[in-house]
Design goal:
single chain; alpha/beta; Rossmann fold; five-stranded parallel beta sheet; two-stranded antiparallel sheet; about 15% strand
């Protein structure tokens, strides 16, 4: 007989071991912009994964607000984070947003598109390094796992030049996810035209509704072979 536990109203199969979920990234992973005592997308997605997969999900967050893509790559390569990633069935990565913001600030002063493009190109290289490192960590993994790379939404949707380069950057992220264990989460599409409802008062980070939308978007991206376990 299969035994179940009821946790927060979710039926979980207690005979199956918990799933490990590691989230690495910047302020989006840290949950900046959420209201006081409200969670970011990581705890929200963990709960949705429990509902979908019927197993307890234990999550760890390694994030620093303001982190550039290169700093996220350094974190991913650190022994502590590498160990957590190697043991995780669910992984989310956010990076590139702060590189974008730096580029936008320079562009607003110079009107030189290279201020945006150069930073986003460097960010894409760092994300490629993140994917390569996780691929190496998981090369001997016997069980299924999913890695979700969240793409970028525009904090200044009215700025067509920035929007164009964000779309180019997001295409580069999509190209990195050419393996069935890696998927792009299209946050750009989810936020486009809905910024007033989903972005916090700082006009940069998601609000509670925005983080909920991100969690739902990750869930809807799918769980791959984890759904069959």
């Amino acid at each position: 007989m299969i035994k179940f536990a009821i946790t927060r109203g979710i039926k979980l199969d207690v005979k199956k071991s918990p799933l490990n979920y590691t989230a690495v990234g910047d302020s989006i992973t840290a949950g900046v912009g959420a209201s006081f005592f409200s969670p970011g997308f990581v705890p929200r997605f963990a709960r949705l994964a429990e509902e979908s997969l019927g197993r307890r999900v234990v999550h760890k967050i390694f994030a620093r607000p303001g982190a550039l893509s290169g700093e996220v790559l350094e974190a991913v390569r650190s022994p502590l984070v590498s160990s957590a990633l190697a043991e995780s069935e669910l992984i989310t990565i956010t990076a590139g947003g702060n590189d974008l913001i730096q580029g936008l600030r320079s562009y607003q002063l110079t009107k030189n598109e290279k201020d945006i493009s150069s930073r986003l190109n460097i960010s894409a290289e760092k994300l490629s390094g993140i994917v390569d490192h996780i691929t190496e960590l998981k090369s001997d993994s016997a069980g299924p796992f999913m890695v979700y790379l969240l793409n970028l939404y525009s904090p200044v949707p009215e700025e067509e030049t920035a929007d164009r380069w964000i779309r180019k950057f997001n295409k580069q992220i999509q190209q990195l996810c050419d393996h069935h264990h890696f998927r792009t989460v299209n946050i750009y599409q989810a936020f486009k035209g809905n910024e007033n409802d989903l972005v916090a008062m700082d006009r940069v980070h998601p609000n509670d509704s925005g983080y909920n939308r991100i969690a739902e978007k990750i869930k809807n991206t799918g769980y791959g072979l984890l759904i069959c376990q």
